[in-house]
């Protein structure tokens, strides 16, 4: 159950993040596709639930300390032998303050998933 303080924090997060979303996300209907609370902790389920989608994806993670972070990807997540996606994808955090990590332009390593892990952004 959301407390009043937590609800105010969620609303603040919503406005900060919505101002950073790529223009093409406007008009897409937002649908909850995966939640660890509803679907458990399986990457296979996450990938399976995203099959057939053709829209940007908003990933929101809350860690055990209550810190919220995540990513916006230009396409659904999937298992792949190679990196995919575009520089429209980015990472973000709300801790300790709201910050966005955009594509550096150094490489094209945006998204890559397998049965054991999901990588969003990568160095060499």
UniProtKB/TrEMBL annotation:
SMART domains: TLDc. It is found in: Mitochondrion. Pfam families: TLD. Keywords: Mitochondrion. Residues 9-124 form the TLDc domain. GO terms for biological process: response to oxidative stress. It comes from the Eukaryota. GO terms for cellular component: mitochondrion; nucleus. Belongs to the OXR1 family. This is Oxidation resistance protein 1. It comes from Lottia gigantea.
